[in-house]
């Protein structure tokens, strides 16, 4: 697959010296939906703004469709649509003109049929003559998307598209994103909602404190979630796993007071019965047995916590 966005060793220090990006490398494949998941202050907006050429990088480089975003800014920027986190619309302008002007800013010829298509796709056609100030927050967010699509970008960045929107609009937003993907648009969205990344992304990247901590296919991450851990707590600590029990699925807790067994909840045989009878045969006395499910949330929380350390 070709990378339509290629970010290399990207660093950004703000004028007060704060390092918001610490050497980000990121390749985004054409046609994929990538969710960048990270807590507030992680650097998501900084990363997107730097890729889009709105913020200047301190070092490193970004190519979009092979065009360097600094030396070949106009060509790179023409390929990008950006839906910003903050609503920044002209309150007295009407919906249709707002979207038309955006297209004009990119030097593209008027295309009323395209504008109509975009407004219909976003359920804004009935509101085309309404002033922006008369719209609800959710409708304004749709206008931001319409603006971003007006010049037919091949890569669309959505910065926290569902922050502060209601559940219904969030679902609509997910459908809009799926439609755009069908049209061949590459989509990068930032979010701090794990469910959102789970619902729509092909790949999930986790970002915290200016660094990408993990980037992986969603399906692989979900497969990890299908695993459970069984903790067999022992009344007497042990120093090593008895030979008869040694397996890849079994490890010993650091303090020796428990055996931790990882198994797949979807497989027919979990191996738990065998394990427990072997534990008894070794003469180990059980204090308690606990099971845990690993979830994307655990993975995320663990990663972000490690980042803090
Ligand atoms: N203009 C700025 N000057 C100084 N620090 C900034 C500026 N903009 C953002 N930051 C800091 O950079 C970090 C990342 O911010 P941001 O990219 O907005 O994070 P996110 O979008 O993930 O919430 C935060 O700690 C923020 O306070
Ligand atoms: Mg942000």
Provide a descriptive summary of the structure in words:
The strands form three sheets. A six-stranded mixed beta sheet has the order 6-7-8-3-9-10, sandwiched between helices. The chain has helices spanning 44-51, 73-78, 95-105, 112-121, 137-149, 167-182, 194-200, 218-225, 272-281, 296-308, and strands spanning 3-13, 19-29, 33-37, 59-64, 67-68, 80-83, 155-159, 186-191, 203-208, 211-217, 227-234, 250-252, 258-264, 286-293. The radius of gyration is 25 Å and the shape is elongated. α3 (95-105) packs parallel to α5. A hairpin with a 2-residue loop joins β9 (203-208) and β10 (211-217). The protein has 309 residues and is α/β, with parallel strands linked by helices. The chain folds into three domains: 1-79 and 154-221 and 295-309, 3-Layer(aba) Sandwich (Rossmann fold), CATH 3.40.50.300; 90-152, no CATH class; 227-293, 2-Layer Sandwich (Alpha-Beta Plaits), CATH 3.30.70. The mean pLDDT is 90. Bound molecules: adenosine-5'-diphosphate and magnesium ion. The site of magnesium ion (MG) has 5 residues, from α1.
